[in-house]
Design goal:
Blueprint: H1 22-26, E1 43-44, H2 57-70, H3 72-81, H4 86-93, E2 111-115, H5 121-127, E3 132-137, H6 140-152, E4 158-162, E5 178-184, H7 199-213, E6 214-225, H8 230-233, H9 250-259, H10 272-282, E7 286-294, E8 299-304, H11 308-315, H12 322-331, H13 337-340, E9 343-349
Parallel strand pairs: 1-4, 2-3, 2-5, 3-4, 5-6
Antiparallel strand pairs: 6-9, 7-8, 7-9
Length: about 350
């Protein structure tokens, strides 16, 4: 990986499941009709063109050109900050988004697989600590941005892999190669790249893939919104840009989203117990739940959920409404705070 690890030994084709050799990198691979190694040093295992981003594709291409010419941060300021907002600019830039890393058992030789790496802020933050990073995404344009940023900042222990969405493809990695797999704001989107199949079944398969590529004793870091988070009961916006859909029964949520012209409801989040069940079905035998505040995207405080006194005492110090604090404190007597927190950060062990 970069100059520190041989990435080729970790790779396998997600279609034929064959190991990748040097010839596959530069010659036409039979499963794709092209070499695996693409522009910018990205390893591409994608069979389809997939683009999802906060800005249109043409604007993204202009951003990449600006990033190459005048620096990655200038490219972002010109084409993301001015086109979208400060929040998304910080989301793309701020490496403190990886500040949850002390929850995991890592050392400088750890191999980390960041699935759904997006703009790469989490990957960059962890790579800067010396870990070996595989940044994986179905959007090759943001992977190009990560490679530009890494090159300009002389980060050599990071490599980008392009693949089809997890709905459609297994991870392009051999079994038991990773110390940590990251699903940071990813699981809820598994099931949205296609319109058929039960999203929960597809999410279970994605978790099975994470389990497969982890070494024995390896860890999954999973960050996701809580299905029954208190904010959703109070009218916060759900993933389809609707209100109350996460807390509705799935079929009723689909009826509602279809009535809005949004298609079926497929961005499934889960409760504390629903996530425990999914993780156990995928093979994980131990998991620890935390509540990140203000959210898992920018985790300034990460609170253990299962220690009630620590949870309540920390909640009272947070910059959230007094009503929110009191409601969570009250329901904690019955253990319901585990369900009503807005976000989860979970570390699950293989």
């Amino acid at each position: 990986m970069g100059k520190s690890k041989d990435i080729n030994t970790m790779l396998r084709c997600p279609n034929c499941l064959a190991a990748v050799d040097n010839e596959d990198l530069t010659s036409s691979h039979p499963c794709f009709g092209r070499p695996i190694l693409q522009r910018g040093g990205i390893y591409s295992f994608a069979s389809s063109g997939f683009y999802w981003n906060q800005i249109p594709l043409d604007e993204m291409r202009e951003l990449l050109a600006s990033a190459r010419k005048s620096g990655w941060e200038n490219g972002l300021r010109k084409h993301l900050k001015t086109q979208v907002d400060d929040y998304l600019f910080n989301y793309a830039v701020d490496e403190r988004r990886a500040d949850w890393f002390p929850l995991c058992s890592l050392n400088r030789e750890s191999t980390i697989v960041d699935v759904g790496a997006g703009w790469g802020a989490v990957s960059m933050g962890l790579a800067r600590l010396g870990h070996h990073l595989l940044s994986i995404d179905s959007n090759i344009e943001t992977l190009e941005f990560i490679t530009i940023r890494a090159e300009q900042e002389d980060i050599k222990n990071l490599c980008c892999l392009h693949m089809d969405p997890l709905d459609l493809s297994p991870l392009p990695l051999h079994d038991a190669v990773a110390d940590l797999v990251i699903f940071n704001g990813v699981l809820e989107w598994v099931g949205t790249a296609i319109t058929t199949g039960d999203p929960q079944d597809l999410q279970r398969k994605a978790l099975l893939e994470a389990y497969r590529v982890l070494k024995p004793g390896g860890e999954l870091y999973l960050a996701i919104e809580s299905r029954y988070g208190l904010s959703y009961w109070l009218g916060s916006i759900d993933h389809p840009k609707t209100r109350f859909t996460s807390i509705l029964p799935r079929r009723l949520a689909s009826i509602y989203t279809r009535s809005k012209g949004l298609g079926d409801y497929r961005t499934y989040t889960h409760s504390y117990y629903g996530l425990k069940s999914l993780l156990r079905e995928a093979g994980f035998n131990k998991e620890t739940f935390y509540a990140p505040y203000p959210n898992y995207r920018f985790p300034k405080r990460i609170i253990p959920i299962d220690d009630r006194m620590v949870f309540v005492n920390t909640i009272m110090d947070l910059d959230i409404s007094r009503k929110h604090k009191l409601m969570l404190s009250l329901v904690s007597w019955f253990g319901f705070h585990r369900i009503l927190v807005d976000n989860y950060s979970i570390v699950a062990i293989k």
